[in-house]
Amino acid sequence: MAATLEVRGLTREFRGFRALNGVNLRVDEGVIHGVIGPNGAGKTTLFNVLSGFLKPTQGQVLLNGRVISGLPPHEIARLGVARSFQISSVFPHMTVLDNIRVALSARTSLGYAFWRSDRILDRFRGEAEELLAAVGLAPVAGREAATLGYGQKRALEIGLTLALRPNVLLLDEPTAGLSAHDVARVVESIRRVAAGRTVVLVEHNMGVVAALSHRITVLQRGRVLAEGTYAELRADPAVIEAYLGGAA
Amino acid sequence: MTARRRIGWSLLGAAALVLPLVVYPVLGADILAWALFAAAFDLLLGHTGLLSFGHAAYFGCGAYVAALLATRLQAPFPLNALAGGVAAGILSLPLMGLSIRRKGIYFAMITLAFAQMVYYIANQWRGVTGGENGITGVPRGHAFGVSLVSSTVFYYATLVLVTLALLLCWRIVRSPFGRILVAIRENEARAQSLGYAVGRYKLIAAMLSGALAGLAGGIWVINHGFVGLDAVHWSTSGTVVIMTLLGGMGTRLGPVVGAALVIALRDAISAWTDAWGVVTGIIFIAVILAFRRGIVGTLEGALGRRAAPAPAVPAPERPLGTIR
């Protein structure tokens, strides 16, 4: 079940430096919204605010009309907003299967049961194996996450995000560093996974952005430079000058 | 359980049963109390990845409360010790509640500061704690009608209680809660973004650790019949850190072995010199340099056996772009 994500007048300052300056954004249900911009434009800061790791200095983030900015990250996650990280953020010394199981048990309150045996987590095994198969990690389920290759860690990252069964997906450069073949695979996964969900996608790869996004916002130095479809932005002279002109 | 492990545990159990024949029973019960203290401490260090420099606050709190209950209310064992544990758990709520807002070295410093505050209060509140003189004449009393005046009998009573408490510690580690603690230790930001209220988990772990440390203090004071400011001194906090690191943090038997070793060393060496601290310190340095994972940790590694969710050192904090 998808949700509407809205950002109103979002400003985030760090001791006088405005990483985000009056950003407005609206993502409707089921839409994939791309966010692009040169390095330093504020994309990661935007994601950190959306997922609760930062509070806005001014402005609000709304989920289905309800203000969520200011809530701690774990509560925002419980409201169905799942985030993937730009640098693969997994649990390195746990097995791939355990990584997913930890994500799956987050929805329950089993985590607090310090008096029960952890064998009770076996109940998540089936669901975990399904999820691993969906991201292509079934063969390495028993390996420590730290031993995975880069592309596999990326896949695990996405797997963890999906395990939350989220309404909103915040994907931070999901194809960064992947080979062309893997990029194509990830694009297909995202397309599948985005069905019925609301997605905000930060990417540098223009091909990926063009292929997936319904609408795109261009950020530059913390402000929204332009917003529209890929075709519209490609023709916008301001955007071309600032970004698209020099990109891949 | 494999046959080899069964043999190992049986040997350990047998050793625990005959210990009063090898050492003074009071020393034996001391080892048990400190073993529990170290195991409780390791719950926070080896497992949650939080290094507390002020755990004496809980050990001492448990000791003082148990002593007061035994002397003023004639509360029997193990009730007095258990009440000490509960008191320490209650104490840990505000203290740890504030401390866990910081991580790493800052967390350690805050815990040390709080422990020093507890020390100061213990010193000043003479009416209750006896100040510098402490509380003397704490009776062994009875447990379920059986007199504990005999140190041997007390040792076995303690063995039962400590075994149960250690089983609880080990269960906590291998519970769903324990798994989440490992996840938090490995990647806190990730755990948060999956929906875990990380602060709450750390606080619960800290309270369990504090309560069990308090129980250890309660057992310790009934054993010795006396509690003074030493129990809340920073050197007590330091001793438990050494025991845990020496034995191997994040392992089941590491803290137990570390406690036994340090207590035995202290006892053996102080027979011929006052400088047992120096000797223990040197041994500690040597072991840590040679066996980074402690005695038990290294042994387990050598035997190819992995401890439950793999411990070792806390994972470094991940950069998140910009973090609040």
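The radius of gyration of chain A is 18 Å.
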